[in-house]
Structure prediction request, 248 residues.
Amino acid sequence: MTTFKDHFSNHAADYASYRPGYPPALAAWLGELAPTRKLALDCGCGTGQFACLLGDVFDHVIATDASAEQIAQAEPHPAVAYHVAPAEDSGLPDGSADLVTVAQAAHWFDLPTFYQEVRRVLRPAGVLALISYGLARVSPEIDAVVQRFYDGAAAAYWPPERRHVEDGYARLNFPFLEIPAPNFRMEATWSFQAYSGYLGTWSAVRHLEQDQGPTPFHSFLEELEQAWGDPSVIRRITWPLSLRVGQL
Prediction:
């Protein structure tokens, strides 16, 4: 039986508010790879950030997450149906999906069982895409402050699966015919309040606050605000995406 490692349900509303958006061009590119655009399955969908983009490309999207709290906060879309279900047991019929996607969640899955499910639900020539992103890039000064916190106060509170995000899923077993992917990135223009809100959704921050209280994170935010300058200033933030894309 698969054990669901739930790091996000207790702050699903913040997750919906502060997570960055994926580029529509990525969903469009995956639509071009898929054998048809009838059905996509988005696993570990969270609050639907990527599922809704797929809904603009595919006729129907089934978006699943093991967290009922995340699904409750999911963004509605006419082509997207949300279900509470583990990635390893989607409930879809055999050979029904053109595309299976996982955005920033594959490192939590029981991958051997998930891959069995992918092979079951994909139609011939169907496509699987694992998507991940690491630390944001803002400016050298701001990035240095964030990196020190990431490697320092927060380091012990990241779950071990985080290492796969750090290396862009490069070491994950991926037993599919791999397809080279173009370079994609997420972008946002945020104030300091929005950026700090995003940082507060990190699972390591929640564990740190549970163990040590709010002081370490607040101290980090004070240092970060000094590097940011006027907190009302809007800055451009980017997250380079890492992709493992394969065909059945």
